[in-house]
Amino acid sequence: MDQWDKIGSIQTIIRGAQPEWISPAAPLILLPQQQPRQFRGTLEQEKEYMNQLEKELSSGVVKEMDNVQVYNPTFLVPRQDGQLRKILDCRKINLLTQLTHFKMYGPEELRQILQESNYATILDIKNAFYHVRVSPNLQPFQRFQFKKKAYTYLGLPFCWRRSPLLFSRTLSIAIRSIREKWNVKIQNYMDNKIFVNQSKQQHKQLNQKNITFISNRSRRLSPTKCVTIPKKCFQYLSWSFQTQSIEVTMTQTRRRSMKHNLKDWFQMTNESQIVTIRSLDQKIGEINYLRFQFPKISLWMNAINNLKTRAIAKGGWDASVKLYKQILGNLWTILILIKQIKLRQVKDRTPDLILQTHANKNGRSQLCKTSNGKQWTLING
Predict the structure, then answer these.
(1) How far apart are the C-alpha atoms of 345 and 245, rounded to whole Å?
(2) Do 273 and 223 belong together in one domain?
(3) Domain that holds residue 335
(4) Are residues 18 and 124 in the same domain?
């Protein structure tokens, strides 16, 4: 707490995560959830769940409770690395919680601060959301049961609607302090933080200070995901960056996944299968994410976007839509782009010619400037 007080954010930390209901009657609607749902899974999954629960208890993320009014389902889901993650099912709470939109910084914002031959390091916070405390007002609605014992979360659960917002808001305070303290280029996307510097030696020194600064504020780093050695070639948010040439391309893992998913959609379209509009919208979002490498990829999605728009106008977001073969051309073009492994030059180009026009009562003049410093004036009467 002393470390947070030094950067003027002690009140934010003490206040913690507060409930933001859509109406005063929302908590009363949740009261019928008084019957706990038993954990379902294999014996091996039950052991894994127990191991994760014991770690949460020992680290103070979860505590055992006696009187419980609202129970939430809980289960295990697979992560991208193949391991299992313990999840609290907050869907009913999320329906009654206000949704607040906020901006998240991605690869485009990194491009704006990246310069030629920059070095970069990446720090990843372990169990990021757990570092934000849950207020006593919210704890009664973050409870669950396992083996006839009741527990509640003291740290933010992963699936609560406001968890990303509150974590980003808390982390932004620390990032702002780092920028002011060491005048360093830094950008974050949730639990990932990337530091950029022109000097490798200076970067090493600043990176160690940043690690100490974050660790002193009860933030544990994930050693397997952190890149602490300054590099000119690095991967960030599923993109491979090369600062020597200021080029970017998607990682091999993402390319493989995108090709596999597109081939599945080829098959579903050829079979004229029926899918939900939300699943179609999710696929469109995945393709739009590639605009960072292929800025004009949206031009090849006219048929897919038209299919989604007509389906929403007809049946709403909860409806389903039949995949027509008219979208095969879009899917095929996008697949070809992904297979090309084309690097994108993300450095802003310097214009070869600048034309300035000046108008007055005597006529109009144009001043031309070239990139090599030459200039001349054209006068029109």
Answers:
(1) 8
(2) no
(3) 252-345
(4) yes
Q: Same domain for 223 and 262?
A: no
* 318/311 Cα distance (integer angstroms): 10
- State the CATH number of the domain containing residue 207: 3.30.70.270
> What is the b/e burial string over 255-292, where b = at least 16 CB atoms within 10 angstroms of the residue's CB?
beebeeebeebbeebeeeeebebeebbebbeebebbeb
User: Mean per-residue pLDDT for 266-294?
Assistant: 94
Number of domains in the chain: 3
Q: How far apart are CA 366 and CA 180, in angstroms?
A: 44
Tell me: do 106 and 145 sit in the same domain.
yes
Is it the case that residue 4 has pLDDT exceeding 50? no
pLDDT for the residue 2: 46
Q: Report yes or no on whether pTM surpasses 0.85.
A: no
